[in-house]
Amino acid sequence: MNLPTTETLLLEQKDHALHITLNRPSVRNAMSLQMVHELMAVFESIKDDRSVRAVVLRGADGHFCAGGDIKDMAGARAAASKADENSDPFYTLNREFGRMITQVNAAPQVVVAVVEGAVLGGGFGLACVSDVAIAAESAKFGLPETGLGIPPAQIAPFVVNRIGLTQARRLALLGARFNGSEAARLGIVHTVCDEANIDQELQDVLAQVKRCAPEANIITKALILSVGNHELDTVLDNAAQSFSDCVQGQEGQEGTMAFIQKRRPSWAEDCKE
């Protein structure tokens, strides 16, 4: 695996999972434009790497992400004062985050978010595009943008997709703050743990990922994400073709034989019970 060099992220591959740690602890891992570009570069570098079956997103020193970096906003303001009429630094800054979160949303790997401490703004949005989200009970979630005089512009569509229009409207328009249990009730996260149990919960999730066939997971995730974005008949036509290809392919044959022979398939041979 050929990963890019990063300054705002810590990268470590453990077995079938790439662990990405947002690493700007002095600002509660607020997301700078540099971090956005580094995340995009990392996800681009692994998109075709089948040795990476899961990506774990986490923040350093007890916080996931406190949102966007105010310094970047100040920088965009300074640039805007010097920009010509054909450029808009604020648009560029905000839209880059949207491109990054779209890329993470569509990543072929299983994306697991482990969220603790601050899960605000952009961090909230990042949690909403994970396939599996594990939260500390004490985590603090919120969309504070409207209290700062700005909209949650790139985040809002993903929040709506995650929890539905009714709750998204309430959270965004009130700037509500809430803990891990409420995040689970709303469907933002799937599991809530005490901080002491989060690592074990993560290991359990990664073990479950390993029991699933890698290509089948990739195809399944793409199928799920296509729902609502294409005509239903088109979705079902594509799904039938994917099913046929998989049944006749290497994973389908191996999975069937493993079931008949009462053994684990090759992709899960070293999984623990």
Automatic annotation (TrEMBL):
Family annotation (PANTHER family): ENOYL-COA HYDRATASE (PTHR42964), POLYKETIDE BIOSYNTHESIS ENOYL-COA HYDRATASE PKSH-RELATED (PTHR42964:SF1)
Entry-linked Pfam families: ECH_1
Example GO molecular function: catalytic activity
Family in the record: Belongs to the enoyl-CoA hydratase/isomerase family.
GO biological process: isoprenoid catabolic process
Protein species of origin: Alkalimarinus sediminis
Coiled coil regions, renumbered to chain: none
UniProt name for this protein: Enoyl-CoA hydratase-related protein
